[in-house]
Amino acid sequence: MGKIETGEVLNLITTIPDTALYIEKDIIPGMMARRGRVKPLTVGEINKKIFNVEPEKPGEMSELVIGELLKYNRYNSTLTPELASEVADIVYYTSQTNCWDELKYPHDFFDFLGIDMEQARRFCILKYTVRMAIGDEENHKEIENEVLKQYLESQNMLK
Q1: Which of 17, 59, 84, 116 could cross-link 51 (Cys pair, CB 3.0–4.6 Å)?
Q2: Residue 80: pLDDT band by 50, 70, 90 thresholds?
């Protein structure tokens, strides 16, 4: 997989006592460094990342609703790695320092999906740990989804 092995990532998730703090102190600064950012995303940048409706680069909420949620029924479906990946992105952007307070805690939305916030944070940690390790390799989405798939299987969330 590159600089980090899938087993290492899956083991890491079991050692993190406070996932919200880990995202704030490790994941976000690590991604900022990888992307060469010196300042946190602004409110406007965060809102665009979450809510952009332009078809050439839809926001994460659009990708989640259009791309994955329409295929998902929480009562008789299991989570897919793709849905977990979109949830991870929303957690990542709503955990940013400059995110509107109203968006910082999307518990109700994830509850609607049947995903508790702690699980959503774990998806974020898994996805972005892999992203930091491998960068934007051509197949990074497949690798991220494979790690998420293995995690979902290990938690009996994927059949």
Answers
A1: 59
A2: confident
